Fold this protein.
Amino acid sequence: MSEQNKSHLKTKLILGVSIPVFIMGLVSFFTDVSSEMIQSILPLFIIDLVEENPTLVLGLIAGITTALANVLKGVSGWASDKINKRKPFVVAGYTISNLSKPFIAFSPSWEVVLGLKAVDRFGKGLRTSSRDTLISYYAVEKGKAFGMHRAMDTLGAVVGALLAFLFLFWAWSYSQIIFFSVFPGICAVILIFTIKDVDPAKLDDSKLKYYGEPKVDKISKNFIKLIIILGVIEFASLNIAFLQARSLDFISPGLIFLIPIFYLLTNIVYMFLSPFLGSLSDRFGRKPIIISGLSILLISCIILAFPVVPSSFSLIIIIFIYLLYGFYLASVDPISRAYIADLAGKNKRGRAYGYYYLSVGLISLGESLLFGFIYDALSFTWAFLYTATLLFIFIIVFAKTDFAKIIKKEDND
């Protein structure tokens, strides 16, 4: 029996991943039950609060909060490497998020929603780089570990969206649904305390076969270039809040309670495809999977650019779009994270995720604001064609970028 197989036997696995990865998956499951119960109806809640330019306000809230979260991911990723500790950031991040966002239920205006959502995203910014670093340390196969984690995270999103649908169907108000999210959030906070921190210097030799030794401890200019290229994916993307807003044009007002079900369908596709596509990327490479997801989003944006009248046919079309969006998420989100782990050594992985999220944060603010402005000032057609054009350009740039050459330059520096 090979040494690699012996190493597999020594590691206790649940559903093909290590126990700590599985527990972090459970934490993300409960957090997403809470978060996605809110997110599946939050655009509707905000549209009810806003009288003028609702899509621009959605873009403002999405842009600012996403940027805040990702910039903080960059700072926290650097800080976690600096002090060589990850758990404090993970615990603080999950606690802040899960105990703040239920109070969005009592917001009298969109400005208050923005403030509370910013606190929630502050918590996300604290935890994500450190959590991803811990997953990469505890992983046996990185693609499978990140894919399984995202699948459990997305299972929480499915449950959260289903609960939101049921509560809307039972005539709960948006505020009641949002506040109920505090209960799964508390479960997540309790579970995260059971995870132990990891010192990369103490990883055993068998794990180093999977993580790889870094040749340098610093992050070079070539590596930062590579991180920025991956981060640009965020600019050529579509926030699901805009998809939810556009969904209102595809259905009659009496069927608005179906929007959480649409959201649920996206997350079901995401949940089932994440582990499969993650494993596929371990075998055949990350780039082809990411390009396929971006191409699917491009097709979706072109479809969404056309005018539509609510009907049975439009209902089928919007359901199809949500299914495609799930494929896009599953093929881009976890695979990009696994890509970062591939390209960084074990001692600089926190900083690598940090630089990645920092670039995403700085880029995403302009993306959401510009899309919302075009949507309200011109039309949804121009907004979706704008995103489709960006996607087309980025797919070509991403496909032609020789990542191996950049890495080779870094290794020779």
User: Anything to note?
Assistant: The chain has one domain: 14-195+205-412. The mean pLDDT is 81. The longest strand covers residues 13-14. Residues 45 and 216 are 49 Å apart (CA to CA).
